[in-house]
Amino acid sequence: MKLMSLVYSIAVFCALQPQIILAAEESKSHDWRARSSVVDRDTYAESDTDEELVFGREIAARILGQYKVSGNEKLQKYVNLVGTTLTRNCSRPELDFHFVVIESSEINAYSTPGGYVFVTTAALSNMENEAELAGVLAHEIGHVIERHIVKELSLKGAEKSAVSSFAALIGGASKSAGIAFSQAVDKAVDIILRDGLKKEDEMQADSSAVLLCAISGYDPSGLVTFLDKVGKIKSGVGATYPVYDVRLATLQRAMSDEGIAGMKLALNTERFTKAMKTEAGPNPLDIIRKVMPGGTHDQK
Amino acid sequence: MMLALFSFAATSGADEFHYNNILVGDRASGMGGAYTAVSDDSGGMYFNPAGIAYSTGKNLSASVNAFSVSNRTYKGVIGGQDWTRSSSTLLPNFFGIIQPVGKLKLGFSYAVPDSNQEDQDQSFKRSNFPITNTKDWGSTTHVINFNNINNTNLFGPSAAIQLSNSFSVGATLYVHKRTTETILNQTIQSDNKVIQVGANPDPLKDERGYILQNGYLETDEWGLKPVVGVMWTPVDKISIGVAVTKTFVLKSEVLSQSTVTTNDPDIVTALNIPKIHELIRSNDSLNVSSDKRKYPYQISSGVAFFPSSSLLLSGDISYYSAFEYTLANALNKRIAVVNGALGAEYYLNKNWALRGGLFTDFANTPKVMEGGTDQKEHIDMFGGSLTLSHFTKNTSISCGGSYKFGSGKSQIEGGNGAIQDANADSWAIFVSSSYTY
Which residues 6+ apart lie within 8 Å of B130 measured at CB? Predict the structure, then answer.
């Protein structure tokens, strides 16, 4: 009988839960359940960001060495405005993002640690509205926020391993440190331009991108329609992306989970079309100097 | 006067008399099993399935009890001799995987909460062995071979859902499979010709007396063990968990046999056993039955405190109800038991964590009282566990051990009112791993 009473009490407790919940705090995050093995692994110190900037700037310089910067200054400004709108809502306010249009027949976009984002002219010419541009830029911002390249190369300022740490790579005065730094940059460039990031990283960037777009007022379907288009075009697509069908399905599921699947927000088709028709400006190097103060190119 | 004739214990293993025989799970085993209010990884499917609602990502966990050893010593059993029974096993202890499906967390796990391979192989002398008031075999040699195998396996699905930010429910439906096999062989032989005291002629004149005993019990049972749990967060960093479970045996097959052979008619007369040819036997047929064991209701409640990402403290109290059942014509009585456990987890840094726990493992048998016979041993045990874990981004490997000990009373000689002091201890070294993706 005592046992039955206890079971009955538990049942009553369960039945009264909604009332108890209402009486309790409105929102209880369960982040406190996360243990150090997870929490601290994704925690970066301020010094890490400084090193990440130096590292990313060097990678950006390598990319700019391979591509010509679009001379269309108005277009550059426009892309920067869209990008900056997005970064105001991103989770790494310590970063100063720069957005650069590069001339290439490849439909692609790239980003480096520290906040350097590149989008190709071919990608822009396959877009139909500002929401699609925002989706692509947000995807690249996602890579930066999540430090995908940094994690892929196991780089972190706090790490004590002399070979893998930022500090050793960048701060080391020895010749070997310089070589290691250069090799790390080479690896990063290879990942960005040739090998691609992990599929999981791409999908994570997709998920964070649609959310960032929605928060910033852009229709989150922009990235979906653009990826769908690119998937159909096929040609010119690098190995950077996983199979598009799987990626789109995952993205749709993520949007559904976030409750933004059917959201109708700004597409800004007219403004985008107008920006794309702007004429080229005079000197691409000025733009590089502007977006990369103190960078390698600036010192020439 | 019949003394120490059937000097073997009931054919049930000592691990039936305790509930915390093996600590299950990766983190849980390190925390002494104080896991009802934590349970937020695959180990939670065993302790409190509501906890897996808070698991992150897809969690795969395998835990191995690399080596488990237990010893029990019964003091001064026959002629002052100590009986020692030892068990050592190497077994897979736990495997579980959790998969988020929409708002649900689904999982599947396999657990071995009990596994025992106990042996007693002893030979000893006894200076006198009185058979009746007028007969004494004198110096005798006793040989005992006892073997007890007892394995419980659980496997089945789990599901949990977070009904609100502060409340979740979950359930596991384990299939219960338990097999036991107990064999005891004992020979008693007089070292010299049997001496007759008194007027009656000695029936064993010019012979050495012998008794051969054989006991055998095998059980094979299938059942279901549902585990239902809730997890509540009254305030941040505090978690309260409650889980209820009970094993229901659906199908059971019991085989038993007991044989005694002796060349002394006085023993035959005293035991009233039939004589067949020149050998004297009793109960030599194999008995088959479908007797079903019963198991207690187990209600576990726990509180966990998460003061920081590097420290976790938890405590559990588990109540096991009283019950009784008859198996192979033997009545088995179990009393209600309350066990407690305390656990802690401390991260030295993001890559290393220490876990420790203290727990009780009280006997579910009634206390051994003067004046009774064939009473089950009653040994209350206390234990501790300690593990060290190493983490990478997605994986963790833990290694450590547990130790428990206790003392109590036993009445291991069948049909004899003598009570022995009994000591027990067991230790296990386990290696476990988990993977989150």
Answer: B1, B3, B136, B137
